Fold this protein.
Amino acid sequence: MKKDKPQTAWRLAQVAFFCLFAGTTLQALAASDASDVPLSDGWRFAEQDGESLYRASCQGCHMAKGEGAAGAGRFPALADNPRLASAAYPVYNVLHGLHGMPSFGKYMSDEQVAAVVNYTRTHLGNHYLDAVTTEDVKKLR
């Protein structure tokens, strides 16, 4: 019977930790505004403006401020990125993907691709003012 007491104490400690963690997580979720989470219906993105499209399709890997991330994979920074100087580079990557980045071409219209690329090239510390047009996107599709 003495073997059971340490095991029972360990189980109780695990349950207590889980409850504490779950309670804290639920409080954080309750405090967050669910309207901040962009969700699209169907298989195409519903968002139309560049910022909303960035939040829905890019932010998960490249982070909210475009700082990039490393961990299970490498997600390059989009902030202050000199590769974005060539407008064709991000358009092609959004349409067709690159390395581990998925392609978004079948999920976004030409207008949406232009909007998210223009947003990325004029925000996040980037100042490339030559706007991408839907015609530019069509040529690379």
